[in-house]
Amino acid sequence: MSRPEGIREVDVLIVGAGLSAAAASKRLVDAGYETVAIERYALPRNKPCSGIISPRGHRFLIENFGPLPREILHEPTSCQGVTFHFRGMIQMPMDFDYGSTPHLNRMNSDYWAVKQSKVEVHDRTRLISLENRGNHVEVLAKQDKEDVRYRARMVIGADGTNSQVVCSLYPGYRQSINWFTVRQYLHEIIECPLDRRYFHFWFHPGLGYYTWSHERNGRQIIGVGHKAGDKLTARHQKTIEYLEKHYGVKLKPTEDKETVVNNFGLSLINRYVFGKGNVIVTGQAAGFLNMIAEGMSCALHSGAIAGEAAVEAMRSNADLQSVYRQMIASEVRRCSDQWNPIKILFGRPHEADFREALSRLRGRDKRKVIVEILKFLYPWGEYNWGRQMVMQALIRELRGNYSPSRWL
Ligand SMILES: Cc1cc2nc3c(=O)[nH]c(=O)nc-3n(C[C@H](O)[C@H](O)[C@H](O)COP(=O)(O)OP(=O)(O)OC[C@H]3O[C@@H](n4cnc5c(N)ncnc54)[C@H](O)[C@@H]3O)c2cc1C
């Protein structure tokens, strides 16, 4: 870590040092542009995450950063797929296309990817504010309580959920979207019959909006998620009792827990945030989140596109926003297709075969699964996303793209 004297001038300043930042950095450093990434925490930093990456994200890591070292993986080191659970003990295991994917330890994997990108990182450096000034951006950050200033031709906001880049550009944004809270509890295992090769997800409206479990380093994670302000402790207790009663899961009391807020929903309704002027936004800060909250592969791909857009805009002296917004449309299609009801019913937007898994069930169970999914979706009605999703799905069918006019 170094503290720049005076104002540090760079071609591109990246805010964040997660996977989207690593991917953007890789493109910029490879193209020879002076790039600095600032990260609010000391690296390697903790990142609450299940660490299950899609096959596409796995390929991106290998192709861009090389073979994955053992220390960036948790135990079990791989994940074969996802199992959906429904009331009545109906289970639908779905394997990932092309085989298992790595079970990433986000503290080490993100640090590894950032180091592999060869970007200069200033950690313990938190973005406070930024200002577009025509042909450059003035940035104020704090490093160990001291002000640090940067002047960058361009800035990439890769600072995840609750992005300060987004809030600096759009005051009032935080109050304008829906927030969710997710908490994962770690338990020592007494007995756990859940198949440890899979990530488990429950379609059970009584448990919560997002209920999951998987094994990590000999501990079982029980995760619960609901709208911000909900009592997650009670949901966790209910889930523990449910899993013990129905699956025979026996766990010791909670050893540790991690809570995070989440800007879930933006990719469902095509409400991405891509920035203003010479500041672009990428990864989860922009709203990218795939089905089952898989955000790593879209963070990597959108981050790389942000880096490429900055390179292209600097090389051809073009408007950064226009270049980025054109280039990012492919990742918007990828991500929003995963939530698009037409694509889910008639296409194959995911990297595990839901329809094939459904076809393996008996007729009665198939019908029950459909009814249970509808019951699970019912409480989401309060967000009024359904009509927007259908409209966006129709536009996608007619025009081949999601409407860019909905992006900020
Ligand atoms: C409980 C949980 C489980 C999840 N499980 C999975 C999973 O199994 N698979 C999957 O693919 N996805 C999962 N996700 C989602 C995934 O973690 C994110 O989508 C992904 O990490 C987004 O990457 P990113 O680079 O955009 O942002 P992040 O990984 O959030 O990185 C942003 C970085 O910016 C830094 N930062 C933030 N603010 C500032 C600031 N003001 N100044 C400087 N730095 C700043 C942060 O410290 C962080 O290092 C999960 C998320 C949660 C909450």
Polypeptide structure, described:
This protein is α/β, with parallel strands linked by helices and 408 residues long. The protein has a domain at 7-79 and 99-176 and 266-335: FAD/NAD(P)-binding domain. Helix content is 35%, strand content 29%. It is built from 13 helices and 17 strands. Strands 1, 2, 7, 8, 9, 10, 16 and 17 form an eight-stranded mixed β-sheet that branches. Strand 13 (210-216) and strand 14 (219-227) form a beta hairpin. Helix 2 (55-65) crosses helix 7. The two termini are 34 Å apart. The mean pLDDT is 95.
Identify the notable features of this structure and list them briefly.
single chain, 408 residues, alpha/beta, seven-stranded mixed beta sheet, 17 strands, globular, binds flavin-adenine dinucleotide
Produce a short descriptive summary.
By secondary structure, the protein is of the alpha/beta class.
- Ligands present: flavin-adenine dinucleotide
Mean pLDDT: 95
Query: How can the largest sheet be summarized?
Result: 8 strands, mixed
Radius of gyration using CA atoms only: 21 Å
How many strands appear in the DSSP assignment? 17
The assigned CATH architecture of the domain at 7-79 and 99-176 and 266-335 is 3-Layer(bba) Sandwich
Low-confidence stretches: none
The third-level CATH topology of the domain at 7-79 and 99-176 and 266-335 is: FAD/NAD(P)-binding domain
Morphology call: globular
First CA to last CA: what distance? 34 Å
